[in-house]
Structure formats: structure tokens, C-alpha cells
Amino acid sequence: MTRAYAAAGVDVDAYERMLERVKPLIAGTQDAQVITGVGPFAGLYRMPGGGLLAASADGVGTKIKVAVAAGRHRGIGLDLVNHCVNDIATAGARPLFFLDYFAAGQLEAEVFTAVMEGLAEACQTNGCALLGGETAEMPGVYDLGDYDLAGFVVGLVEEAGPRPAVCAGDLLIGLPSSGLHPHRSYLAELQAQDWKAAAHITGGGLTGNLPRMLPEGLSYRLDPGSWRMPAIFELIQRRGRISDREMLATFNLGIGMVLVREQPLEGYPVIGEVVAA
Questions:
Q1: In this model, does residue 2 exceed pLDDT 50?
Q2: What is the topology classification, in CATH, of domain 171-276?
Q3: Which terminus of the chain has fewer Cβ atoms in its 10 Å neighbourhood, N or C?
């Protein structure tokens, strides 16, 4: 018997159904300045003076439990900033500023300081300002010792003309992950290369995120044997009795970012190609 993500209490399909119900509400708030809304990795908003703002928000999920159990909290801050920056990097944006939301049952100075150190370090590395945020102490909502962390990033997309259209036959180039993803930043790599589209491989795995970068009428073909899956994922699959399909729909499997290009990219595996839907 294989196990599914939903059996662990996370039903991605149910979330998608709920999102479809509220999309009309979201669309009703948007005007012609909104270039992309719900769906892509970053929302794009056209500024009156030219240029596009890119924005994204995220949290660190159950990695909080790992940080609390290990007593190591700096990495949570690094992870969150890099996750958000990667999302807007898929739109070709450079980050401008970042805001955080930290909530706990009881504020602990050492934990809060370690988290903020991680946030500040990642902001400096990615060239964005830690502009501010919100800190909330909520006993009764969070258990003592527990906390939650979310982040919000805004970036700028310079007006450089549209990227070339994605076409059937284009290649999928895999950029390696750092494992289960305490996220690393892909910003410098994306800024240094030419690419048509990019997918940040987070929750939903490869099969859940690759379609988000492809235009209507196109799909993809993956070649799972074209890259080496880190041992941690092999262990998870074996111990959890998880099917190949569920692994692809849940984990990054060693690929943290995927670029669409016409040509291969030296030093990175070609993990598949774009095909007609």
C-alpha cells in the first residue's frame, strides 16, 4: 500500500477546489494594472510610471516544528526570505523589500533574535531591505514554545520587453535543491542566464509547479532518470511506502528550480521538455 499527502492531513486537491470558489472574489478587486494575479508564483502590478512590481507571500509551514525540536531557529529566517525571493525571481524581478509576521504563544527573546538574524542575513544576501513587519504574542492561540512565521516580498521587474514565448520542444533545465528545502536563493543564477519561463519547486512538487509556468496548450514531459535524487528522498519513499507519482507531486526530489530554455545550460541537467498538451 502506498500513502498519499492527503492521508497526512494535507489535501492539496481540496485546497484547489476552495481556491476556485474564491477566485471570482479576488478577480473583482483587480483592475487593468494587475498583469498576473492568483496562479503564477508572483503577482505582477504595472506602476503608473512604467515597470512592474512583483509580490509574493509565504510561510515556513511545519519546518517550525523541526526548528523547535532542534532548538535552531536562524535557518527558518533564511528559508523564508529565500523562498519568497525565488518566487518573484521566476517573474524576472529583483527584490526591493521584505516584511515579516512573527506570532507566538509567548515571545522568547533568544528565539525571536535568532529568527531575525536569519531574516536579516538573507535580505542582505539577496540585496533587499528588511522594511518592517508585525510581532504578535497570542497565548491561547499558540502553545507555549510554538510560533509561526510568514513573509512578504516586493520586487521590481525592469521593462526589458517580453521574454520569448515558450514553445513545444523547449528544454526543462533543473537547478539543484538543497534537499528538503530549507530554501537556498536562486536569484543570482536566474539573473545570470537567459530563460523563457521558470518554476520554483515547493509545495506540490514537480508535477504541481511545472504547469504554473506554461501557457495554455502546452504541457511537459519529465525524464526522472536524468538527475540524481538525493538519498533523503529515497529514504522517505521507502519508509513511507510512497508511490513515484505521489513523490513527484509532493517533493522537489533534488530539483529546486526549473528553467525553460531552447538550449542546454552547461553544468545543469536537462530533465525533460515542453510538449503540446
A1: no
A2: Phosphoribosyl-aminoimidazole Synthetase; Chain A, domain 2 (3.90.650)
A3: N
